[in-house]
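Support request, priority: normal
Reporter: lab tech (M.K.)
Component: structure prediction queue

Hi team, I submitted a job for PhnD/SsuA/transferrin family substrate-binding protein from Flexivirga alba yesterday, and the status page still shows it as pending. I've pasted the exact input below so you can check whether something in the sequence is tripping the parser. The sequence length should be 291 residues. Please let me know if I need to resubmit or if it's stuck on your end.
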Amino acid sequence: MTVKPIISAYRRMIRDLEFDVAELAPVTYVMAREAGIPLIAIPVFINRKFHHSDIVCGPKSGIRAPKDLEGKEVGVRAFSVSTGVWGRGLLAEQYGVDIESITWVVDDDDHIQGKEPANQRRVTDDRSLESLLLADELGAAFSGNAGTGRAGAPREGWTETAPADTEEAASYPLFPDAKVLERDWFLRTGVYPLHSVIVIRSELAERAPELPTELYAALVRSKQKYLAEDPTWAQQPRLARQAAQVGGDPVPYGAEPNQPSIDALVRYSAEQGLISNRPTALFAPGDYPVG
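Reply from support: The job had stalled in the queue. We restarted it manually and it finished. Here are the results:
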């Protein structure tokens, strides 16, 4: 089943368990495990993205370095959106930014509500984060799906609300040399930010214990079939660029090659108050060779 935008499927899966198997935001998933929502994952992460390039500054904000964000208002679609969690973790851990001093301005709900921090403010006048940023009412914001590229809750046609190029040019990146910094971060830490984990309704995995292994194997075969026809990811330019950044597979499957990223995601989620403890049994019992 195709759901547009895919973020709507995340919400439908979390709130209504609408699908047997679905893609889900990884931060939402670790929150779901702690909340007791009956979902279990397999270690397939079908999307990755570095985030240095996702933070843009208001035209007259005067922000030149990460520490300049302290005391400012920064836009993000929802506090628990994975890009925001990765970005805040990066700012705090790598650049010493006091993320508690920042007011996080949101214009949408979290998939799992009830974990909103005290330093969050909700937009109440229907203006987009992009318009607030360009009016210098925000010091900075996350771009794309996580912020300025969309307005309000996910809905059909949501992608059509992306700002025009002329408006986008009015803001500027916090990290002009983002690609260099992303490569450096990866080489130093092994962290390659995860997005879009595959989850199964727990009752199905319990009823058929072989299901997680079989589903994982099917997805690995699908990936291998694709690579047999396009071994350099030429038909997927974004993945081709990421393959060059990481010097290998841009979407490795399995727990082992993703462990540094899994650990960082859980750590950042806990540090930002989205979970209390590291969830136990993040993945369904099964056989998951690197794929």
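The chain is about 35% helix and 15% strand. Residues 211-229 form the longest helix (19 residues). Let us know if anything else looks off. Ticket resolved.
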